[in-house]
Amino acid sequence: QVQLVESGGGLVQPGGSLRLSCAASGSISSISGMTWYRQAPGKQRELVAFIASGGITNYADSVKGRFTISRDNAKNTVYLQMNSLQSEDTAVYYCNANIKSNYVWKNYWGQGTQVTVSS
């Protein structure tokens, strides 16, 4: 059974930094794109950052220059380094990945991790 588990969320002051991690576990033979999404209260879930298996990245305009997505393929883990955090970044952050397990590709979601930016 494949699982995505996020960690690293918490409470941080405006201007601070956090690093989120998302580790995939289970019977995994390959992972393609990995994505971070977020959902703020009362708002729709939105894409934050994407990284392809080869390392190509894409970011939402609202986080460009502040957030950095990276991945460690040996550890089946994706990271999101978040700097210069603002109150508007407060949300539940979700990891998403396309994973091949037992010869079948599926899309998986993590359970989410809360990020709160407040003084």
Chain-wise SSE layout:
Layout: E1 3-7, E2 10-12, E3 18-25, E4 30-39, E5 46-51, E6 57-59, E7 67-72, E8 77-82, E9 91-101, E10 104-109, E11 113-117
Parallel strand pairs: 2-11
Antiparallel strand pairs: 1-3, 3-8, 4-5, 4-9, 5-6, 7-8, 9-10, 9-11
User: Mind telling me the C-alpha Rg?
Assistant: 14 Å
Oligomeric status of the shown chains? single chain
Structural class: mainly beta
Largest sheet: 7 strands, mixed
The 3D shape can be described as: elongated
Helix content: under 10%
| Number of beta-strand segments | 11
The low-pLDDT segments are: none
- Tell me the fraction of residues in β-strands, as a range: over 45%
Give the overall pLDDT as a whole number: 97
H/E element order: EEEEEEEEEEE
**Separate helix tally:** 0
**Through-space gap between termini:** 40 Å
Task: Give an account of the 3D structure.
The strands form two sheets. Strands 2, 4, 5, 6, 9, 10 and 11 form a seven-stranded mixed beta sheet that branches. Strands 1-3-8-7 form a four-stranded antiparallel beta sheet, with no helix packed on it. It is elongated and about 45 Å long. It is built from no helices and eleven strands. With 119 residues, the chain is mostly beta strands. 29% of the residues are buried.
